[in-house]
Amino acid sequence: MKKADTVMKLPSWVLRNLIHGVPARECVRALKHVPQVCNSIFQGFEVKPQSLSLPPIQARLLRLLQDDDTFLGVVLHLWTLGNPEIVSEVRKRSIKSLEQDLTRLAATWGGDKIAIAFAADSRKSVQRLLAKTADTLQGIQRSDSPAATSPAGPPATDPEAREKADRQLRVLQSKVESLSTSLNEVKQTNRKLENQLRATRRELERLRGQLSTVESRASTLESELTRTQKGLDRAERARDKALQEEAGLSKNVQRLNSRLAELEAQPAPKKAEPIKPEPRLVREERGLVPFAEEKGLVFRCQIDGLHYSLNIAQILRQVDTNEEASVKETTELLVKLKRLDVEQHRNILAGMRKHGNYYPWVVTAPMSPAIVDGSNVANCEKDLKGQAKLQSLLNVREELRLQGHFPIWIYVDASLPYQIDDPKGLDRRIQRGEIIKVPGGSSADETITRKARDTGACVVTNDRRIADLVDPSLHLDTIGFVVFNSDVTLKQI
User: Fold this and answer.
1) Residues 6+ apart with CB under 8 A from 407
2) How far is the CA of 424 from the CAs of 369, 417, 418, in angstroms?
3) Which strand ranges, in their side-by-side order, compose the sheet holding 405-412?
4) Quick check: 125 and 30 in contact, CB under 8 A?
5) pLDDT single digits (tens) 201-231
6) C-alpha span between 402 and 240 (Å, rounded)
7) Strand pairing partners for 370?
8) Rounded to an integer, what distance in angstroms lies between the CA atom of residue 350 and that of residue 405?
9) DSSP designation for 285
């Protein structure tokens, strides 16, 4: 705050008029430069220009002007900036001219403003003139002001009115102090409540952490329960299958006993013996289509006067690649062979069973076809890199095999090799014919829907609207699935 020149002690009425006359915005800005003074003036009120019109603020400001000459000089300077005409009129006159025209100046501008202009003048002679004429100036009001023309009301210098105003001011000060005390108590209570709120929030966070731990444990237990239930379901299916096989074996034993009794009277046919792998498998004269060269256990047999070569590896490949015609022809040959040579038939099935129970099951029992929406299955569970999993496809195929499905056509979009976690493994199976990749620009959903409509096969997918593309009125036999940690569960939907 700028240090003012020595300012004489001004009467209270001059200071009150000074407070009313100084621009409120500039006064607040000057107070903000001294935070301690600003806080004492506006204690319990907002620090804004409108608050200067409140009586408690004016009373505090009046005491500050009486006690602090520096701030009084600043306020006088602010007042002069807002009243340049009056200040110019006073400063251009000599002391003698001011004494002669005092009454006229007071009537023109108002006695209060002339007194403030005198106080702001740096000339000591002018300030002494103010000390002599202060009472005179207090009684002179501006000629065009309402108070100057009004006959009613006591003079401004009435001691009783001043005493009454002082009493009202003291009452207001007492109320302000009481309100300030109440405000402090409210602040303390508020701080206590805030501390309690923070403690409650910390406790809530702790309980949330415990709840999250419990939920995580419950989720883990639920997953373990699901896996256990799946294991029990598999064991139940395996038990049922074993019972069925046992019943079938009992029937076969009965038929074999009957057949043996019939064959005792006939010469035994020459039995075919396993031979070493041959480079190419053919069927003499007619029947089986020539196969590709493959290594594996080969059986030769004679059926209806024709010689056949059966390659186990070739049969497995036919099943894996869904070659329905070849598998059907192999099944018919095995049915004929079973009537002629049970032991040879058993040896062939045992050779196939070494690679899995599914293969002899395909050529000995009725099966139902299935179609797999490969892209939907591979993307149902992704790895840590966000890539589709080939293992999900293989697990779904294995589950379908356990439920007695053949052929199992797996269709994938042309873009899946770029999204899968094992693109080389997928490409190998596509090349072998185990998985079918639709041409680029085509929709796997359309191919699947048309294949299902033509063959009547069930569709394994979680896409309930897969048939909308081809025929919205077509109701496909759809099997949904759930894959969790590579475990597969199929469900009819």
Assistant:
1) 322, 324, 327, 369, 370
2) 27, 8, 10
3) 436-437, 405-412, 368-373, 458-460, 478-484, 487-492
4) no
5) 999 999 999 999 999 899 889 888 988 888 8
6) 12
7) 408, 458
8) 21
9) S
